[in-house]
Amino acid sequence: MHSLRREDGAATFAMYWLLPHVNRYRAQNPRTDVWVSTRMTGQPPNFSAHDLVVTRGEVAAPSSRLSECMLLFREDLAVLTSPKLLARKPLAKPADVKSHHLIESMTRPQEWAAWLKHVGISDAFMAGGHRFDHLFVASQAVQDGLGAVVAPQNVLQEAIASGDLASPFPRLNFPGESYYCHGAAGSIDPATQKFRDWLVQEARSQGSMTSAARRAGGQRSRRRSS
Question: Where is this region: Disordered (predicted)?
């Protein structure tokens, strides 16, 4: 007998983090189907139609059907670019990002300004460049070699590990919003609880491996730009 779990999450998070994990879970639990739906920034989470809902930066009200909230992880924001662009325009120091087109997402309009301030660069300005409506569009543009973006390297960790993206300054990072997994308070059916607990453990395991992934991404970037 198959069991079905329904999960809802923000589009970029679902594309780059949730779906790869769902694939792994289904490989380990072939008799459980997990159906994922996505929403865009600004769309309110639908706590009434899903078994689990993942939110960014907000938690459900105590009166919500899915009022039990568990932290997955907090965003780890850094500069991301493509290996092919690094081969043409290496980034040896933070100020070198001014040689790249600085790509922005309209849903995250202050990330570049925050990163430049974080690393002490005060004379850069955002002129021209590409501005996209959502981070997943901006991330694809970065993979295509159009420029660099400030984005959560832990959300995009698999793209970094595969070589689709590179993190040239993985330790010049700062925290962003947190992601929370919401489920029903009190009694929860065993299949949903198993999947939720597995997802939380995956997020925590990823956190323990993040330093190694950053080092690998930085080393790969340096090799390809040398």
Answer: 203-226
